[in-house]
Design brief:
223 residues; alpha/beta; 6-stranded mixed beta sheet; 5 helices; 34% helix
Length: 223
């Protein structure tokens, strides 16, 4: 009985945190070629989404989609990030870029292989480009945290993908995590350390995602 009561308390606190996040008043931000979404609170729906195709993708195979890799762009503006991710010379890409106001720039469909993970390993499986969705949050989490709008917009984008491909929560990881897994497997191979979404912001994102799933009456098991 005591354990059951404690569980109820924990769930109540988690829901309270989510409600607090949802009712925060965001600042209206204008972006290039954007009609702002009019809303008075951060919500898990209604974010602006634009198609922004990248020419950088693998035309020989389909993405198997067993996981999701979170990144930050590291660039000062979303325009610079989009330019890099569509440059044929750079040969890098992702599935979606999420600006600080929650605007999504969709660069490829989920079944397309994009070039976002490089040398990487997810639970023993190499070449994460072939089996994961790449999410790029505009900005640098070493300098500034993810915004509530970015997190909410990412959840809105990811929920249909998580459900369609039955992606377990422990397969939602950061670029640093899959890079470190590769380095651990091949310590003699050159593979630079990369901090891409800090552990703190990863925990923030996953905590919000789990709280959202609790509110939606779904079971959220820890990774």
């Amino acid at each position: 009985m005591v354990i059951f009561l404690l569980l109820l308390v924990v769930m109540a606190v988690a829901i309270g945190v989510a409600v607090w996040i949802i009712v925060q008043q965001p600042q209206t931000q204008e972006t290039h070629n954007k009609v702002p979404v009019q809303h008075s609170y951060v919500k898990i729906s209604g974010f602006d989404e634009k198609r922004y195709p990248t020419p950088n993708y693998d035309r020989t195979r389909k993405n198997e989609v067993v996981g999701i890799v979170l990144h930050h762009t590291g660039e000062p503006t979303v325009e610079e990030s989009l330019e890099i991710l569509t440059s044929p010379e750079r040969k890098v890409s992702t599935h979606v870029v999420i600006d600080t106001d929650g605007t999504r720039y969709v660069m490829a469909d989920p079944d397309v292989v994009t070039f976002h993970a490089g040398l990487s390993m997810l639970f023993g499986r190499e070449h994460c480009n072939y089996c994961t969705i790449g999410i790029e949050f505009q900005g640098n989490t070493l300098v500034a945290p993810l915004t509530n709008e970015q997190i909410a917009s990412a959840i809105e984008y990811l929920m249909p993908i998580i459900e369609a491909y039955k992606i377990p929560l422990n397969h939602i990881v950061t670029h640093e995590m899959v890079r470190n897994a590769y380095r651990a497997q091949y310590p003699d191979k050159r593979c630079d350390i990369k901090v891409d979404i800090t552990p703190h912001e990863y925990a923030h994102f996953m905590g919000t995602l789990c709280t959202y799933l609790l509110i939606k009456d779904k079971i959220c098991k820890p990774a």
